[in-house]
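Hi U.,

Before I forget, here's the chain from the pilot set. I'm dumping it here mostly so it's searchable later in email.
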Amino acid sequence: MKTLLIITLLLLTTTSHALERDYQTTWCNANQGQPHRLANGTQVDCLTATHAIEVEYAPKFYEGIGQSLFYAMHTGKRAGILLIVDLPKDQRYLNRLNETIKHHRLPIDVFIINKNK
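Structure:
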């Protein structure tokens, strides 16, 4: 039983990461961008002519704020977050992200991809 639970969790994690990577690749290609490895070993999910984009699922938007600002600092590009919206309830995360950006006047642009459309 314990082994089955571990295997299930691993499959869900692997599937989730594969989907995020798929959205990253599709969006990045459509916006003339590409993944970019920084000198410190971290990777910008999508570097375009104007933006350093971090791709995140909506509930992880908190992480996207810090990562996108960090990547922007190291690339000289504007910070961006591509937010993957899975469910209708994920709108609350988009709202929180936008409220945080507005409140702190953060130089982050938000792009949205809706998995269900």
